[in-house]
Amino acid sequence: MKLLRILFLILLPIISIAQNVAVTGKVLSADTKAPIAGASVFLSNSSFGTSTTNSGMFTLNGLKPGQYSLVVTTIGYEDYTQILTVNNDPVNLNIELRPKTVQLKEVVISNISKADKKLALEQFKQDFIGTDQNALDCKIVNPQILNFTFSQNKTVLEAYTDELLIIENNALGYRIKFLLKTFKSELLSGNVAYSGSQFFEEMKGGDGKKKRWYKKRDEAYYGSAMHFYRSLYKDSLADAGFKIYRLARQVNSSRPTDEEIEQNLDKAKKSKDDSFLYWTSIKNHTRYTNQKFKGKFAVSDILKSTERPGLLAITFPDNLYVVYTKRWETNYYKDVYRIPNDLNYETTIVSYVNNNQAILIDRNGTIIGNSPLYEGTWSKLRLSTLLPVDYAPYGKQQVPSN
Q1: In a domain, 206, yes or no
Q2: Three-state helix/strand/coil letters over 301-357
Q3: What is the CA radius of gyration of the chain?
Q4: Is residue 324 part of a domain?
Q5: pLDDT digits 0-9 by tens, 84-111
Q6: Running DSSP on this structure, what letter comes out for residue 280?
């Protein structure tokens, strides 16, 4: 199975959500000062969002004091993002949007052939929404707004949108509006990276459907990265079912690059000789060597305070090896080293994208700024299992039976 590794970069999501502070404001055009109606106003990665009225006004109710990333977007104007600090007092904003200038890259990307766009859309669905059971119940409502481009002999797919991409997740009961700024899928290595902002709307359904949604949401939450980071923040990993280890490893320098392997596999298919079996075997070799554990981490070993209120920093040598002991792993990951004689629990290897750059988290389990690289269980998680940062579980996950 091809290794999938994913880098998530959500633009400064909120630090806290909940009860009774209101944010109100008015959205105007920067050049004419006229009110802008129908603009989307939301807090990134949350379930708090609305649209401006005919007079350009908006209101977001039920916020708890804290730090937020406020996003305003509408067709024909540049997107607006503001880091918002809310105290106990109501906040009123006057926001001006600048008219958008059409860029050359939009013209170039729009020239992609119909056949390539169909191929790109299917690949995008797999890499962005997912391939799990939940993904089968997800639908892109407006795929026509996606802009695609292929590069490097169609081995790299990139995408972005100027409007909100709307996805209906009928598995979890959310209508997700996603402002996709960048998306990059390296088809040979399986690496996927994207950035953007999104908010969640509750879908309508009867009691039976809601009950199924709540169950599915809890299944998506328990064992997830959000669950782990929240538990780490509260120093309650053991109760939540997580164990953390230090894993050391080296890159396997004798293994050819993915591009070289794929090129030789393609040649072998055409020549129909025994080299195909050889290159298939090489492809299945792990990317790493000399892998060994250097003991368990304690929370105090990796979690440090920062000068920013509400934020903690995760730092670790080598790699952070995370095991969730309340669910079995159902996929095989050739590059994920397993603890000898241990049970096959869900496992994720967390590593830095940039060497020794701390991972900042808030109490809601949200990563602020630079995200790490995931290999293993969390690398398979896509939009089909994504939950808003203000999500609270409905029940408790049970330990798997033997």
Answers
A1: yes
A2: HHEEECCCCCCEEECCCCEEEEEEEEEECCCCCCCCCCCCCCCCEEEEEEECCCCCC
A3: 23
A4: yes
A5: 877 778 889 999 999 987 654 444 444 5
A6: H
